[in-house]
Write a structure and sequence with these properties.
By secondary structure, this protein is an alpha/beta fold. The protein is built from six helices and seven strands. The longest helix has 17 residues.
Length: 212
């Protein structure tokens, strides 16, 4: 069986945050070989992350971008060498300049400041760049794109400043595995499907919200 890999028209994308959502989204997209993937995250892997993020014991204490780079080296492409060092950034995304030059910017970081920066790039035909916001918290998840009507932006940006976990308050308070949630994995799958279909020119939803 011969599989045709798209090696000539790879889309350049930036994934901000490779925690709960991003650590599953990036490998899904990487397998297709349709994307020149760049990742940005200044966080390190903690022991508790092993229960719901796509990391191994060897990654504890190391930067998440390094863990993802190691993960992608175990690939199903005989022509693939994984993620280039130049495609990983251990710095926070703080300015619009850092968003330039990509076909699509995907936010997987549960951080309000990053989302505000993304939304400030505009909506619809007036958007300075194309963006996708993937989020999860406990049983809830959402996909919000630049195609969304700008009138909803205030609602979607309503929340506490700073960072928070895709697990919500339950597991991070109890550290009991009975309180784990996996909605973030579903959102990673939805996000990968949206991205793949959008780049193919298919009709896609501007936004959707789930509760599992």
């Amino acid at each position: 069986m011969k599989i045709e890999y798209n090696k000539t028209e790879r889309r350049k994308i930036l994934v901000i945050g490779v925690g709960g959502i991003g650590s599953y989204l990036v490998p899904l997209l990487h397998k297709s070989w349709c994307y020149d993937i760049h990742i940005a995250d200044n966080d390190s892997v903690e022991v508790k992350n092993l229960l719901y993020q796509n990391y191994k014991q060897r990654d504890v204490g190391n930067l998440k971008v390094i863990g993802i780079k190691k993960l992608l080296q175990s690939t199903n492409h005989d022509f693939d060498i994984g993620l280039a060092e130049s495609n990983t950034s251990r710095y926070q995304v703080l300015t619009s300049k850092q968003l330039e030059g990509y076909d699509l910017v995907i936010c997987c970081a549960d951080n309000l400041a990053v989302r505000k920066l993304l939304y400030s790039q505009g909506f619809g035909d007036n958007a300075k760049l194309k963006w996708l916001d993937l989020r999860a918290q406990g049983r809830n998840g959402a996909l919000i794109s630049y195609l969304t009507d700008e009138k909803f932006s205030e609602t979607f940006l309503n929340g506490p400043e700073g960072s928070f976990s895709c697990q919500g308050d339950g597991f991070n308070t109890s550290l009991n595995t009975k309180d784990l949630h996996f909605t973030h994995v579903a959102i990673a799958g939805y996000g990968a499907q949206w991205i793949h279909r959008w780049f193919n020119g298919d009709d896609v939803s501007d936004k959707f919200i789930i509760n599992i």
